[in-house]
């Protein structure tokens, strides 16, 4: 079984050394989160409201911000630029960690679309156990 929920946010970024994207510029980003697993006793993979609360917690860190400035000290981005690809990995990794308390969930997928153009999608396994703080 698979469920999904879509979110939108606005944020700026730049990619050092890129001929077109080297200057700070903004996008309306679309994040689509998909979860795979088995139904729980309530007939759901996850309550959509609860998923929204978790995802919006991460979106809130970068919404209407310059993502490069927000992630200055984020270890993942020390050697990698802020791109749709790296943002999809960041969202998937963090959400997989926060969904560990759901024994019925197997995987989280995060598709990050940059404006009306391209997108990148990343998947992380959810390992049941202690959840994020």
Protein model, in words:
This protein has a 4-stranded antiparallel β-sheet. It is α+β, with helices and mostly antiparallel strands and 133 residues long. The longest helix has 15 residues. The chain is elongated, with a radius of gyration of 15 Å. Helices cover 26% and strands 32% of the residues. The mean pLDDT is 94.
Output the keywords:
133 residues, alpha+beta, Tetrahydropterin Synthase, Chain A
Instruction: Please report the total strand number as a whole number.
Output: 4
Distance between the termini: 27 Å
Gyration radius, rounded: 15 Å
**How many domains?**
1
Specify the CATH architecture. 2-Layer Sandwich
Order of helices and strands: EEHHHEE
Shape: elongated
Helix content: 25-40%
Instruction: Name the CATH superfamily assignment.
Output: 6-pyruvoyl tetrahydropterin synthase/QueD
Q: Assign the structural class, choosing from mainly alpha, mainly beta, alpha/beta, alpha+beta, or little secondary structure.
A: alpha+beta
Low-pLDDT parts are none
């Amino acid at each position: 079984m698979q469920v999904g929920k879509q979110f939108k946010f606005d944020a700026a970024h730049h990619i050092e050394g890129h001929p077109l994207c080297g200057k700070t510029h903004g996008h309306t980003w679309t994040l689509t989160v998909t979860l795979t697993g088995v139904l729980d006793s309530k007939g759901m993979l996850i309550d959509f409201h609860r998923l929204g609360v978790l995802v919006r917690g991460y979106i809130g860190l970068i919404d209407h911000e310059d993502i490069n400035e927000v992630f200055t000290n984020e270890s993942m981005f020390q050697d990698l630029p802020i791109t749709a690809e790296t943002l999809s990995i960041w969202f998937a990794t963090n959400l997989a960690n926060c969904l560990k308390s759901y024994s019925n969930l197997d995987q989280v997928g995060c598709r990050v679309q940059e404006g009306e153009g391209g997108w990148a999608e990343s998947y992380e396994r959810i390992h049941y156990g202690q959840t994020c703080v």
